[in-house]
Write a structure and sequence with these properties.
Mean pLDDT of chain A: 94
Largest sheet of chain A: 10 strands, mixed
Helix content of chain A: 10-25%
Strand order of the largest sheet of chain A: 2-1-5-8-10-12-14-16-18-20
Number of helices of chain B: 9
Low-confidence stretches of chain B: none
Protein name (chain A): Fe-S cluster assembly protein SufD
Radius of gyration of chain A: 21 Å
CATH topology of chain B: Rossmann fold
Radius of gyration of chain B: 18 Å
Strand content of chain B: 25-35%
Distance between the termini of chain B: 37 Å
Number of domains of chain A: 1
Pfam families (chain B): ABC_tran
CATH class of chain B: Alpha Beta
Organism (chain A): Algoriphagus pacificus
Distance between the termini of chain A: 41 Å
Structural class of chain A: alpha/beta
Largest sheet of chain B: 6 strands, mixed
CATH superfamily of chain B: P-loop containing nucleotide triphosphate hydrolases
Mean pLDDT of chain B: 92
Family (chain A): Belongs to the iron-sulfur cluster assembly SufBD family.
InterPro entries (chain A): Fe-S_cluster_assembly_SufBD, SUF_FeS_clus_asmbl_SufBD_core, SUF_FeS_clus_asmbl_SufBD_sf, SUF_FeS_clus_asmbl_SufD, SufBD_N
Number of helices of chain A: 8
Oligomer: heterodimer
Number of domains of chain B: 1
Order of helices and strands of chain A: HHHHEEEHEEEEEEEEEEEEEEEEEHHH
Order of helices and strands of chain B: EEEHEEHEEHHHEHEHEEEHH
């Protein structure tokens, strides 16, 4: 309840009418107004002044409209070597006719599905932005992966974003993965905007028994992008979820990633790198909830920060009283390349069970000068030696991308960044 | 090949080297000995270009060029090699990748074609024999989890790969057991030729039984206070450094 000041930036926006999902929207709206926009006094947002940033950047708090993209634009945005299905969105609206190689993939625009359990995984009450999205999302996608489906090629969710009549883009995704199925999602954005825009995204993933889900994301949306995302996954017995998040730029980015381990022998993995320069600000808040015995979670986030960039990492691990024999590991390591770069890192473990293995650690330091000299003393140019060392640091995260061509694509992106701008 | 004239260097304002003079010619092996803290490792570091040291006076020419004017990587490309006293562990950088990058940058500087993967591997296999280093070790991250002996062998292996004209071995013998010492020395000896030179920095005479020096210099308080042949090393072995220290210190007080 932090809404003593002027009632908030989105109040008028919420008065406009949104189609369908009446009860869910009503619940979202109430919850949002209840929570209010976060201030720096809100514990969860104390290092990320998102409300101030939104107030400064958004002149037109209205919903951004869908727009056309050409097939050529879509094809140009697909990573080299990528062979799978492509689902295309503009400002969060699914562009069915632009989708490629979808084959028998079962999906539909969210606006056509009036009866989906949205909000049952990413609960509105947990975060004001999840609530705002639930109250006022416009479109998104519903994806259903049937039982025992093993989809070899990843599914690419490609979003084109552009501030137009409004600057607010609110996509919502509901993914259901059947029992024993395996699937990989890749999300990429193409920013076409030359004015600030705000993406407020919610992704809910319901994993089946023994399912294997991978979720890879690249965030490289430039100085006009303000983004908050809430991604939440429920994992049932014997299932595994792995997320790899690569953040390369953004004016202010806040990622809330939550995994609920609901069945024994489930495994949740969260990996991320943030390579920031300029004034980029990226905040990763992760949350793993161990509710049952014999589950495992692994987490590794690495940051390299140059110029006046800022990184925030907050990793919560809950181990409930019933969750005996939990294995939970968390690590956050940062390298600061400039005196003006800042990292705030905070591990947060709450453990009620008494027979568990949990570890966490965080480090923040500078580039190892001795290692740099060692490489130079063997004839390697200083810039390249730096790139080599930084890549060695960040590369560990990329190893968790199982798809070869996408890992190669990410590796190149990361190497280009490390070899040049740092 | 290498001429050092009146070299003074300090670290954080504390003078360490106070006027070193040394001339090294192609084909020669020079041993630099001296008690702890005499400046031996500093000399090696200054020659390789470690940034923490500030050269306050003097000059160093290497093959006619002003060595002190070159960045560390250019010194390496010109043919200076420093075998580190404490080789650095670099997780995530594979030994093989690292060496290939290094060699090709050195070759590019020298106007030679880059080595392709096949030629590189052939060369690697050949040089590996020299220091009896295992392929498995080289597929790991650079020096990570290597034993002390393996690290030192890896230094000499890198030296073999980079084919320097001036090798500076900084306490390469310290901490080695006799087998490792033999292997390392054997590698160094096989790499010796009439065209290259070696500076062996060591505290102990033992290494010089295996790598036989043409000249032995004793460094004390940042200066070369005594030079001789390998017999000098034996004398030091027998009598320790105290007699030299006393001689110099009493001279200084007179």
């Amino acid at each position: 309840m932090s809404t003593l000041t002027k009632q908030n930036l989105f109040e008028g926006f919420l008065e406009t009418s949104f189609a369908g999902f009446e009860s869910a929207r009503e619940e979202g709206k109430t919850s949002f107004l209840n929570q209010g926009l976060p201030t720096l006094k809100s514990e969860e947002y104390k290092f990320t002044a998102i409300t101030k940033k939104l107030e400064q950047s958004l002149q037109n708090v209205g919903a951004a409209k869908s727009f056309e993209v050409s097939e050529a634009e879509v094809k140009a945005a697909i990573p080299a070597g990528y062979e799978g299905a492509v689902l295309v969105f503009t400002n969060g609206f699914l562009q069915k006719e632009r989708c490629l190689k979808v084959g028998s993939l079962e999906f539909s625009p969210l606006s056509e599905k009036t009866e989906t359990p949205i909000g049952s995984i990413a609960k509105a009450a947990k975060d004001p932005f999840a609530a705002l999205n639930q109250a006022s999302f416009q479109d998104g996608i519903f994806i259903q992966i049937p039982k025992k489906a093993v989809i070899d090629e990843p599914i690419l969710l490609l979003s084109f974003n552009k501030a137009n009549e409004g600057q607010v883009i609110q996509p919502r995704t509901w993914i259901e993965v059947g029992d024993f199925s395996e699937v990989t999602f890749i999300t990429l954005n193409v920013n076409l905007s030359e004015a600030p825009f705000f993406v407020n995204k919610v992704v809910e993933i319901k994993g089946g028994l023994n399912s294997q889900i991978r979720y890879y994301r690249i965030q490289n949306d430039g100085k006009f992008a303000i983004e908050v995302s809430n991604i939440e996954t429920n994992l049932l017995k014997d299932s595994r979820f792995t997320s790899v998040n690569i953040s390369l730029s953004g004016e202010m980015v806040r990622n809330n990633l939550s995994l609920n381990l609901l069945g024994s022998n489930s495994e949740g993995n969260m990996y991320g790198i943030y390579l920031l320069n300029g004034k980029s600000h990226v905040d990763n808040h992760t949350n793993v909830d161990h509710t049952i015995p014999h589950a495992e979670s692994n987490e590794l986030y690495k940051g390299i920060l140059a110029d006046q960039s800022r990184g925030v990492f907050n990793g919560k691990i809950f181990v409930r009283q019933d969750a005996q024999k939990t294995n939970a590991f968390q690590q956050n390591n940062n390298i600061l390349l400039s005196e003006n770069a800042i990292v705030n890192t905070k591990p947060q473990l709450e453990i009620w069970a008494d027979d568990v293995k949990c570890s966490h650690g965080c480090t923040t330091g500078q580039l190892d000068e001795e290692a740099l000299f060692y490489l130079q003393a063997r004839g390697i140019d200083k810039t390249q030696a730096k790139g080599l060392l930084l890549f060695a640091f960040a590369g560990e995260v990329l190893e968790h991308i199982k798809n070869d061509s996408f890992r190669e694509y990410c590796t190149q992106l990361v190497q280009e960044r490390l070899g040049s701008k740092f | 090949m290498l001429t050092i004239k009146n070299l003074h260097a300090s670290i954080e304002g504390t003078p360490i080297l106070r006027g070193i003079n040394l001339e090294v010619k192609a084909g020669e092996v020079h041993a630099i000995m001296g008690p702890n803290g005499s400046g031996k490792s500093t000399l090696a570091s200054v020659l390789a270009g470690r940034e923490e040291y500030e050269v306050t006076e003097g000059e160093v020419t290497f093959k006619g060029k002003d060595l002190l004017d070159l960045a560390p990587e250019d010194r390496a490309r010109e043919g200076v090699f420093l075998a580190f006293q404490y080789p650095v562990e670099i997780p995530g950088v594979s030994s093989t990748n690292f060496l290939r990058t290094a060699i090709n940058q050195v070759r590019e500087y020298r106007g030679l074609e880059a080595l392709d993967a096949v030629k590189f591997l052939t060369m690697m296999k050949e040089k590996m024999k020299l220091v009896e280093i295992d392929q498995k070790l080289l597929s790991r991250s650079l020096n990570e989890g290597f034993s002390g002996g393996e690290k030192k062998r890896n230094e000499i292996f890198q030296m073999a790969m980079l084919e320097p004209t001036l090798s500076i071995l900084d306490e390469t013998d310290s901490g080695l057991d006799i087998d490792a010492l033999r292997i390392v020395s054997n590698g160094v000896n096989q790499l010796k030729s009439k065209d290259n030179a070696t500076i062996v920095v060591t505290h102990y005479q033992r290494l010089l039984d295996y790598i036989v020096p043409d000249y032995v210099h004793v460094l004390y308080k940042g200066r070369i206070v005594k030079s001789g042949t390998k017999e000098l090393a034996l004398e030091l072995e027998e009598k320790g450094y105290d007699w030299i220290k006393e001689a110099i210190d009493s001279e200084a007080t007179v």
